Task: structure prediction
Amino acid sequence: MRDFVVAVDVGTGSARAGVLDRKGKLLGRAEHPIRMNQPTADFAEQDSEQIWNAVCTSVRAAMERAGITPQSVAGISFDATCSLVVRGRDGGQVSVSPDGEPCWDTVVWLDHRALAEADECTETGHRVLDYIGGVMSPEMQTPKLMWLKRNLPACWNAAGHFFDLADFLTWKASGSLARSQCTLTCKWTYLAHEEPGWQGDFFETVGIPDMPGRGQLPERASPIGTDLGPLTAEAADALGLTEECRVGAGLIDAHGGALGVLGGFAGELESIDRHMALIAGTSSCVMAFSREARPVPGVWGPYLGAALPGCWLGEGGQSVSGALLDHIIRWHAAGGEPNAQTHRRICDRIMEMRAVEGYELAARLHVLPDFHGNRSPLADPHAVGVISGLTLDASFDSLCRLYWRTAIAIAFGIRHILDALNERGYAIDTLHVTGGHTKNPLLMELYADAAGCTVVEPGAEDAMLLGTGMAAATAAGLYDSLGDACVAMARKGRARKPDPAARERLDRDYRVFLEMHRQRRALDAIAAGEA
Result:
């Protein structure tokens, strides 16, 4: 019986694979690292062949740990970061790097080389902006493609395929040039709710009218979990699976996490707008669903069918969150390498200090966490971080105080997005958290207390793999629809209520947080001669 599926989750630094049964239970999991090239500030590149090899290695290891046969796997699907892969007409690698090295053919999602091009897109005022929160982000594909055409014309001329990373992986697996409705809608200005979905006049306005044809982008996107065909013989051999295994249209990694924690509400759509997914790791992504389109300034979307079929999705986030805590550790004189042991040591010491000082710990120290811009709700990629209240203290305890206040700022950033959503018709009171932050006790406490929400930790060991497994199960025909797969495979989570005793102190600190945003804008205006 083919009762199992394989899910692959490609993050910023590694590829993870999991084997799941038809009820969503994770039977085996494995991970393999991925390299990144950062030739200069704001540039980040990867090697798509190395990513594929990491995927194959992790799938084989996960299968071995699960102890099942290749013949028992019915389907496979992929989620990945929204990185841009460029391939030639023959399918070979095309460099996106200034140094021209062919292996660097992938612009990583966090690459900000196209800030100026993103601003140009915003200045067009085109209606596609109505479905990305009104502001183009340099993390989306259109500005990156504009940058490539202008700055690396040889790359542009050699290009024959443009892929979001998840679509590149389904192409490698099946040979299909189909693109996911998730990737195209969220990152390529494709309007899934319209016919045609591509707005050619927008690409003409920004100087890349030939992009859809050059990149072999299809006229219509494929819904998540669409059966794209079987594994090719080459891919089956590389992955350690069979050619009978079906390949499902995939999705962006954060959206896989959203399905993993909110997919079970596919049968309760009337109340789904009370729930928000927080996929939190290097960066943080929040996702909220609704039955109708709800535009929110500074929040990407509304996107139709970008995760749950028939639902509109609003997507916000923080460009750095876990990465910011790592940065604080490296930056401080008492820091060092931000590994798991260092984070644990800091958190343990903060707990000791709080046992004495409570929420008054470092009460005059305040942080704005926008060290890599503000993705939501301000949609300002030029925003910078701010720390107020520093002294000459360079001890380990001073690092702990700064870490604590940075963690509070990260939680306030989520509250800022949540408030913006609720002001536009959502009724969010429950936050479903998945990703690396579930291992940080301070952040999990603060997400409940600072936002005043019930926080649910996922019952699934890996929610990203679960959500992508739902897509694989749909493609394999184990369920009639993605919604059915989501309901059947959902795993019940654990709830944490906010502490009422923390509310007054944190509400005051949140007022400071909002005032710091206002003052930063005022200082920027003075420095620019505008005030």
